[in-house]
């Protein structure tokens, strides 16, 4: 699927709605004033206008539900007696024979299911739509032509009520037909889709609504492990997916927020669909079984804090050390940098400095403040360094480099001092999951469920941290040392802490050696580190010295809890790597998601119908409004145009306005066609006329901007069908809510415009 | 005429119909001023195209006056609230043809926010009143012209209005309907309602109106009470029972003595309306018969008596 669902932003949507309604309101008031000046004859214009306005709003305030209901019922009766429901018969006939024409493809079961759903939903919308446009556009004009409206408006019925009654009436009718057709269509789909595709005989259920949780952030790490917005481009013109290079440090990173048992359940189900791209044929095995990809779940505050520290070359090594958690080393590297900065200031480009400034202030300091253990001083040092770095603007200016050098040295000092604390407070837990295969011609989506309790083979850091924690815990309970000897029960205690016997023996052996070497002290039933050192330092060193290599071939097998260890604050980081050398995996944000418990097909289907219903209602609103102003055929044409543009060309308009479409202004492009020029050569004309053409094109663009705001984006409504056709649930936030908002956003001004046009016009149309 | 309060006041009303481009087409009403008083039946007369309907539509806010002022029931013509107490029968019954009589009345009743019970009761009364009992469940598109007028009248009265505006109430009605309509108008007046009717059926207007106005080409030409306008001060009419030839000769002699040498004395004829009414009544009583001219003439005194009742 090629979409990138983004939740609907109510606040900004509402804001732009208010602006637009404000502008339209101002235009309407202007027109009204003009009209009443012409009509009331000069000086009388204003009072006439004000009185009209007041009486109009009085009418709006005094609407009566009873009367609206009467007019609604009248409209429905009219439709029924005019046999609008006959479309339903057409639908039934289409369904009866539709099965013959739909392709049956046994190999691609998912396509078959999706074809059936698409057939039903498309037929429903395209059958009801013309009926609805037709009825809503002719209703009021006919009422005026036959003068039946005379009899209504000489009763206490308000014009708003007439408009609302029409809209509600046609809406009720459209929705009734929709529900009828929807129900029949549902039964039809259930009967057409064979049982084994519904998961009844054990196969995968394709008639379902997957509920995805998409990552909140998505970015790439390049082959050096540095963050970048996109991955590699393998030469596709279509830039939806970016590629991760195999067997390098290149990764795609998703960050999911709000990962708690309450939100995703007790286990983690990951589903993905990646694109495989080969530069070489690869081994025979990889030819038949596809490329190998691997998820790694991460809890990594260092990555969060320092991921872009050192994107610029000058601070690269320091950044690397920070990310590795080697804070002493980082401190040394930074003081070297500080020295170089005062000796050779011009080596440091302003771009590098600005980059490191942003990273220190917005990432490092920000994350350090979030850690509970009080790294206020470190955060401050990063911030000050960042501020000093941000002052470096002029490539020649040495003074600002001087200041930056001082801040850098200060940062190095703080890091040196708090390095061990930081090392303890900023762990990196890395849980690589079982690799899986990605096929070239991927059919169906691969998904895998991982339990809450994850077993993984620890790397050096995790081993050191794990042993530190185990020994510290035992020591705190007084179980590590008896008197001044290692406890005799230590072996069984370690085994109880899930350590294999061979490894437990190794640990005891190493501890004994350390005690003998005087690095560890065993006295008074407690184990302590010499020189007031820390256990983590000791185990870090032991791991580094390769004295704790697992005796068990499976390595140090540890357990991590998905929620407590990997997403302690609800943020889960998942990296995807490609394991095959010289191969590439393409991915976009929506290509990997956490799949929650599926919703029933019925739920998603109903939501898709709801969106179609809203679309029909919006068309009705537009049609009725137009028909208050112009006659039937004109408003029919108008509504149809709005629909077609809004459905098929709205995104095109938006792209032009955002400058994403290639080419220049309308007139300029037209001239190019006439003159047989290309955009790179430009047109052949004098400077003066070029200016004029460009000015005119600006006006065109302005008009387009206005149009894109006034014409509703109908694709908001049809998107729901796309979700369900692809086996996804229809999300509220990015599909149903925008549809509702679009509908309501148009309903309110349309009702007012329609009612005003009916009120301030003589109903004597001949 | 109980009080002198004005229910409708029209001052200097003019209406110019314009085409789409704002060019003047017709001046339908020219500087019209008139008052309709509470409780009276006011007849607006005039030939075709004289501006009667235009005036009424402006009164009801369907058209906007080019100039001039209107007050109706103390409110502006553009105020919907006035409609609560107005009943309007348009020139032709502009109703929803896919509804039946019951549904029509129910629908308009709802527009007045009447309760279901009220609506039912009122609909029953009105349908009986306009004589559509047999046809109340048939759709209006099947109705004859007169039946449509009748249901139109019923909807105009649904809210028991204080002011009834009738645009050519008798057009399309058979003589019985016309008579019933006239009786109804008088009944409405007796109930203290104000009636504004317009028509070019002079006899009808004459029969029921308290005051009339005559329009011609948009201008008000004559206005006044019916007695005032129609009293022929130069003539005296005498009516008696059937008189013998001798009797007639004697009367001629007497009149000659009073200086009236050549009075016109003849057997009065019933007008066609009376004949028609008679026929229908007799047909109801004796179905399956045809009447001869003599028979109808013989029953003339009854018709006479009937006609002189009003
Ligand atoms: N909608 C209209 N557009 C243009 N002219 C109109 C319109 N309605 C009426 N007129 C013109 O206004 C004049 C008055 O018409 P109106 O209908 O008021 O006459 P009327 O007195 O009701 O006639 P009738 O006895 O035939 O019903 C006529 O000349 C008519 O042609
Ligand atoms: Mg008329």
Helix content of chain A: 55-70%
Q: Which whole number gives the mean pLDDT of chain B?
A: 81
- Oligomeric organization of the protein chains: heterodimer
Gyration radius over CA of chain A: 35 Å
Based on secondary structure, the structural category of chain A is: alpha+beta
What fraction strand of chain B?
A: 15-25%
Protein chain pair with the most extensive contact, residues per chain = A-B, 30 and 32 residues
Largest sheet of chain A: 7 strands, antiparallel
Description:
The complex is a heterodimer of chains A (766) and B (310). Chain A folds into five domains: 62 residues; 238 residues, no CATH class; 147 residues, Jelly Rolls; 100 residues, no CATH class; 97 residues, no CATH class. Chain A contains 26 helices and 20 strands. The longest helix of chain A is centred in the first third of the chain and has 37 residues. Chain A is elongated and about 110 Å long. Chain B folds into three domains: 225 residues, Rossmann fold, CATH 3.40.50; 28 residues, no CATH class; 38 residues, no CATH class. Helices cover 37% and strands 22% of the residues of chain B. In chain B, the strands form two sheets. Chain B has a six-stranded mixed β-sheet with strand order 6-7-8-3-9-10, sandwiched between helices. A four-stranded antiparallel β-sheet of chain B has the order 2-1-4-5, covered by helices on one side. In chain B, a hairpin with a 2-residue loop joins strand 4 and strand 5. Chain B is globular and about 70 Å long. Chains A and B meet through helix 3 and helix 6 of A and helix 2 of B. The site of adenosine-5'-triphosphate has 14 residues of chain B, from strand 2 and helix 1.
């Amino acid at each position: 699927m090629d979409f990138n669902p983004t939740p609907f932003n109510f606040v900004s949507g509402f804001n732009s709605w208010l602006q637009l309604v404000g502008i339209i309101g101002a235009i309407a008031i202007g027109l009204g004033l003009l009209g009443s000046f012409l009509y009331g004859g000069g000086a009388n214009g204003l009072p006439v206008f004000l009185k009209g306005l007041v009486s109009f709003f009085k009418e709006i305030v005094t609407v009566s539900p009873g009367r609206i209901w009467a007019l609604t019922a009248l409209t429905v009766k009219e439709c029924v007696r005019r046999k609008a429901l006959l479309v339903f018969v057409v639908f039934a006939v289409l369904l009866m024979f539709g099965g013959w024409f739909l392709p049956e493809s046994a190999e691609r079961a998912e396509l078959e299911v999706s074809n059936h759903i698409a057939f039903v939903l498309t037929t429903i919308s395209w059958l009801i739509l013309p009926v609805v446009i037709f009825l809503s556009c002719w209703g009021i004009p006919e009422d005026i032509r036959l003068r039946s409206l005379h009899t209504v408006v000489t009763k206490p019925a308000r014009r708003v009520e007439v408009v609302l009654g029409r809209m509600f009436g046609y809406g009720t009718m459209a929705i009734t037909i929709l529900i009828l057709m929807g129900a029949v269509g549902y039964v039809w789909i259930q009967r057409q889709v064979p049982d084994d595709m519904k998961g009844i005989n054990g196969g995968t259920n394709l008639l379902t609504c997957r509920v995805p949780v998409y990552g909140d952030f998505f970015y790439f790490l390049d082959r050096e492990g540095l963050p970048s917005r996109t991955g590699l481009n393998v030469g596709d013109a279509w830039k939806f997916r970016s590629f991760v290079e195999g067997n390098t440090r290149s990764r795609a990173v998703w960050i999911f927020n709000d990962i708690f048992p309450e939100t995703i359940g007790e286990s983690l189900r990951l589903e993905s669909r990646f694109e495989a791209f080969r530069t070489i044929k690869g081994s025979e095995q990889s030819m038949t079984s596809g490329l190998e990809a691997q998820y790694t779940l991460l809890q990594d505050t260092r990555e969060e804090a320092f991921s872009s520290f050192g994107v610029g070359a000058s601070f690269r090594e320091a950044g690397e050390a920070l990310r590795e958690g080697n804070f002493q080393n980082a401190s040394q590297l930074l003081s070297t940098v500080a020295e170089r900065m005062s000796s050779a200031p011009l080596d440091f480009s302003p771009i590098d400095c600005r980059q490191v400034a942003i990273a220190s202030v917005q990432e490092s300091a920000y994350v350090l403040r979030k850690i509970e253990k009080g790294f206020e001083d470190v955060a401050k040092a990063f911030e000050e360094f960042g501020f000093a770095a941000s002052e470096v603007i002029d490539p020649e200016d040495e003074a600002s480099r001087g200041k930056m050098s001082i801040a850098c040295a200060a940062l190095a000092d703080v890091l040196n001092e708090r390095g061990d604390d930081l090392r303890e407070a900023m762990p990196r837990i890395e849980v690589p999951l079982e690799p899986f295969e990605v096929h070239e011609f991927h059919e169906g989506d691969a998904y895998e469920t991982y339990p809450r309790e994850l077993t993984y083979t620890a790397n050096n850091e995790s081993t050191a941290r794990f042993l530190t924690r185990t020994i510290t815990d035992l020591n705190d309970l007084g179980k590590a040392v008896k008197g001044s000897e290692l406890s005799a029960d230590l072996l069984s205690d370690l085994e109880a802490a899930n350590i294999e016997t061979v490894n437990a023996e190794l640990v005891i052996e190493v501890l004994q050696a350390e005690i003998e070497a005087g690095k560890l002290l065993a006295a008074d039933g407690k184990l302590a580190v010499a020189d007031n050192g820390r256990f983590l330092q000791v185990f870090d060193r032991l791991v580094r010295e390769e004295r704790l290599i697992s005796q068990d071939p499976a390595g140090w097998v540890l357990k991590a809890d998905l929620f407590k260890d990997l997403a302690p604050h609800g943020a889960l980081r998942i990296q995807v790597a490609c394991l095959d050398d010289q191969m590439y995996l393409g991915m976009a944000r929506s290509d990997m998601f956490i799949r929650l418990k599926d919703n029933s097909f019925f739920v998603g289907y109903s939501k898709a119908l709801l969106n179609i219903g809203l679309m029909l209602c919006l068309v009705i609103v537009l049609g009725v409004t137009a028909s208050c102003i112009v006659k039937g055929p004109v408003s029919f044409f108008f509504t149809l145009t709005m629909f077609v543009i809004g459905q098929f060309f709205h995104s095109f308009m938006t792209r032009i306005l955002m400058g994403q479409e290639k080419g220049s202004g309308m007139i300029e492009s037209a001239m190019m066609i006439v003159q047989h020029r290309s955009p790179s050569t430009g047109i052949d004309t004098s400077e003066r006329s070029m200016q004029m053409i460009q000015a005119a094109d600006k006006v065109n663009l302005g008009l387009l901007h206005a149009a894109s705001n006034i014409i509703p984006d109908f694709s908001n409504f049809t998107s729901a069908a796309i979700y369900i056709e692809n086996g996804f649930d229809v999300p509220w936030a990015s599909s149903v809510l925008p549809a509702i908002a679009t509908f309501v956003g148009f309903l309110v001004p349309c009702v007012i415009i329609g009612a005003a046009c009916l009120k301030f016009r003589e109903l004597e149309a001949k | 005429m109980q009080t002198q309060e004005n229910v409708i006041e029209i001052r200097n009303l003019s209406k110019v119909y314009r085409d789409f481009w704002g060019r003047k087409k017709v001046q339908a009403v020219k500087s019209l001023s008139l008052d309709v008083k509470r409780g009276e039946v006011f007849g607006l007369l005039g030939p075709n195209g004289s501006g009667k309907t235009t005036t009424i539509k402006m009164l009801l806010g369907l058209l906007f006056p080019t100039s001039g002022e209107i007050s109706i029931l103390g409110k502006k013509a553009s105020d919907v609230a006035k409609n609560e107490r107005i009943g309007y029968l348009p020139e032709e019954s502009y109703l929803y043809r896919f509804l039946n009589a019951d549904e029509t009345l129910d629908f308009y009743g709802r527009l007045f926010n009447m309760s279901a019970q009220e609506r039912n009761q009122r609909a029953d009364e009105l349908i009986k009143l306009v004589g559509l009992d047999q046809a109340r469940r048939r759709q209006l598109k099947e109705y004859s012209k007169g039946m449509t007028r009748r249901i139109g009248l019923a909807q105009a009265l649904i809210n028991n209005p204080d002011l009834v505006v009738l645009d050519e109430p008798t057009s399309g009605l058979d003589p019985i309907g016309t008579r019933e309509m006239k009786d109804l108008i008088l009944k409405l007046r007796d109930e203290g309602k104000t009636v504004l009717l317009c028509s070019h059926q002079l006899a009808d207007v004459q029969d029921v109106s308290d005051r009339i106005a005559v329009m011609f080409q948009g201008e008000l030409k004559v206005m006044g009470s019916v007695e005032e306008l129609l009293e022929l001060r130069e003539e005296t009419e005498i009516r008696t029972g059937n008189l013998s030839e001798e009797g007639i000769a004697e009367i001629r002699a007497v009149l000659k003595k009073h200086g009236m040498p050549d009075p016109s004395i003849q057997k009065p004829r019933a007008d066609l309306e009376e004949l028609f009414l008679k026929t229908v009544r007799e047909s109801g009583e004796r179905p399956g018969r045809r009447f001869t001219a003599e028979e109808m003439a013989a029953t003339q005194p009854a018709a006479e008596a009937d006609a002189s009742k009003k």
